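Q: Give me a backbone?
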Amino acid sequence: MPETSFTHYLAARHRESTLVEHLHNLGYFTRWLAGHGLPEPKKAGYADLLAYARQERVRGIDVSTINLRLTSIRKYFAFLVETGTLAVNPAAGLHIRGKIRRVIREPLTLAELEALYQAYSRQAKGDGARPAHVRNAVILGLMVYQGLHSGELGHLEMGHIRLDDGKVYIPGGARSNPREMALATAQVLLLDKYLCQIRPRLGPVGEKVFPGNIDNHLAALIQALKQINPSVRNARHLRASVILEWLKVHNKRQVQYMAGHKHIESTEHYALQEMDSLTDQLAKHHPFG
């Protein structure tokens, strides 16, 4: 159980019945942490709170009950902030609103994303490849390996791609932060071919990496990708799949940067779905666990 001084903190603010309820609710969280080999309560973070809330929903606990428990947990962290143990309350503003919304249905796996790029770019590497096919293969590479969305693709300029350094700079926008990403080895030769040989033939040249209407380019690309893998839905489906794969190997702050999310809450939506998927897999393979 957390520090006894937390009991004194509650006693100064609530009557005994409320105090007991808060300690009881906090006990659910501390036991859940212990059962999952996670840090003691004062070392728990936002991700731990989300995982706890998600598991309670899986167990069939009502949303209103979960929110009551989160209120008690929030008070505990407020106590830690007030006493100088923590600088920030990780439970501040955390409130479960009904059913957790999935950001995407049936995301593609990393293997499927890479197979998609390899299959589509194979023809683009040949001498007789159509210019539009080469351009769209480069677009696909930036979607699969750097997670660019349509707005970022449309604003990408020649100076943003540095082949010598193997990097691409993605400028920020109204809803996204700027970032610098490494290019994958599989992209470099095709990018060089496109920028030096193909792009000048697509005109008008200007500074845009992809002249013309980016939405039209993406529509043609997605239509072709559906012929390779019918599971492909749209450009948003590809980007969401990439972000979900990133979350399997990087922490949320890293993924926030990689995805260009202005707010960590945007990344948390994806993190919660990834956790949801893991829960589904556990239920599938251990239905009586």
Observations:
- The two ends are 27 Å apart (CA to CA).
- Confidence is low (pLDDT under 50) at residues 278-289.
- Strands lie at 161-162, 167-170, 179-182.
